[in-house]
């Protein structure tokens, strides 16, 4: 097979490395791939020129597979490091509040109790919100009708801990509990949250993802546990119900609606190498992104796989105004077109200190900005187009 021509600087900026899309499904010569590492960093072939290209890509901030991604980046894409610390301070949420020019995010739960921080997009300053009461381990977040909603992760060893979902008024800092249980039983870990407004109505519904507890050492799991999956809260009828069971989604993680509010996207953090981390049998689940239609009663139906992660599993998910799918994965922030083709990657090898052990799990789309939560680093990348226009 003739080798496809490649360039290490497909745009005028050498920070972009372009890889032929054909290499994602047809490599020349003999090759090996290691799923522990990224496509660029974990693939080796018998063709020196291909290996050199992949080595260049492994060190670049931007990896392109399609002209659409180059157009999205513009002629001179530049990653801007806003802040770096010794701790993993930029971990989860990634909530854009358009009218305030802010991105709210949370710290990393693996390092201990979490808190909320706010990035001011005008001057890149960072502060913590002045809130009316403490929030226990805030994690996932979503902006809806003037309030920021955060999931609150339950502390398994604390009998008084319930977790749940809270709202924060960004103007006043007032905190209010939205939910914390179902019929007196506690959820394992509510990881992410999203609101969807039914088209043509003023009815909104809240969807939450539930992660399973894992056994830590000799600590027994609590018995007051509800099954993981996707649950929906209907504030109009005051009803909280599971709408996607753990049979369909063993490790439901990120959740977001489409811009037209007609579809729901959910990531599954299961599959080989991941299921065991949640106390599940091997080969349970799939490191994939699922798309659901929302029916006339706003229930998710017609599930189909629209993306699968190569390295680790997808976590945070967003859909932009052109229907492109953005996910936080082991590879980094991966961008796919509406057909599921990977068109480009914001490379975790560049944006984190350790792409294998410290992944990019969340990010924020903020107009024509991408905010990358790189754990110990917070990044801002100016895009060449307005990818979203509504806060979320």
Automatic annotation (TrEMBL):
InterPro entries in alphabetical order: 6-blade_b-propeller_TolB-like, Oryzine_lactonohydrolase, SGL
Species of the source: Aureobasidium pullulans (Black yeast)
Name of the molecule in the record: Calcium-dependent phosphotriesterase
Domain SMP-30/Gluconolactonase/LRE-like region: 220-345
Pfam families: SGL
Signal peptide: none
């Amino acid at each position: 097979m003739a080798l496809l021509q490649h360039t290490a600087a497909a745009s005028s900026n050498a920070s972009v490395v372009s890889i032929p899309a054909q290499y994602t499904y047809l490599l020349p010569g003999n090759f090996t791939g290691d799923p522990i590492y990224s496509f660029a960093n974990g693939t080796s072939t018998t063709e020196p020129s291909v290996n050199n290209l992949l080595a260049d890509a492994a060190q670049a901030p931007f990896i392109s597979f399609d002209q659409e991604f180059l157009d999205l980046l513009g002629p001179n894409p530049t990653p801007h490091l806003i802040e770096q610390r010794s701790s993993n301070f930029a971990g989860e949420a990634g909530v854009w509040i358009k009218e305030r020019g802010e991105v709210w995010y949370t710290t990393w739960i693996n390092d201990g109790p979490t808190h909320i921080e706010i990035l001011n997009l005008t001057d890149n300053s960072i502060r913590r919100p002045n809130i009316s009461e403490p929030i226990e381990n805030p994690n996932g977040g979503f902006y809806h009708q003037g309030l920021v909603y955060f999931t609150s992760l339950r502390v398994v060893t604390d009998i008084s801990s319930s977790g749940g979902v809270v709202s924060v008024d960004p103007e006043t800092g007032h905190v209010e509990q939205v939910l914390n249980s179902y019929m007196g039983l506690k959820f394992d870990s509510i990881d992410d949250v999203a609101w969807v407004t039914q088209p043509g109505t003023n009815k909104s519904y809240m969807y939450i993802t539930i992660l399973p507890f894992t056994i830590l050492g000799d600590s027994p799991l609590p018995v007051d546990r509800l099954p993981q999956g996707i649950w929906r809260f209907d504030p109009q009828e005051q009803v909280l119900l599971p709408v996607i069971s753990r049979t369909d989604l063993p490790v439901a993680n990120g959740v977001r609606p489409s811009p037209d509010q007609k579809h729901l996207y959910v990531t599954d953090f299961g599959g080989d190498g991941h299921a065991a981390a949640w106390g599940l049998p091997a080969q349970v689940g799939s490191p994939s992104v699922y798309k659901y239609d929302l029916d006339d009663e706003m229930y998710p139906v017609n599930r189909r796989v629209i993306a699968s992660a190569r390295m680790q599993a997808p976590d945070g998910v967003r859909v932009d105004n052109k229907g492109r799918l953005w996910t936080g994965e082991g590879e980094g922030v991966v961008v796919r077109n509406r057909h599921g083709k990977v068109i480009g990657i914001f490379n975790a090898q560049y944006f984190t200190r350790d792409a294998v052990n410290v992944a990019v799990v969340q990010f924020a789309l903020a107009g024509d900005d991408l905010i990358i939560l790189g754990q110990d680093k917070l990044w801002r990348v100016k895009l060449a187009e307005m990818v979203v226009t509504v806060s979320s």
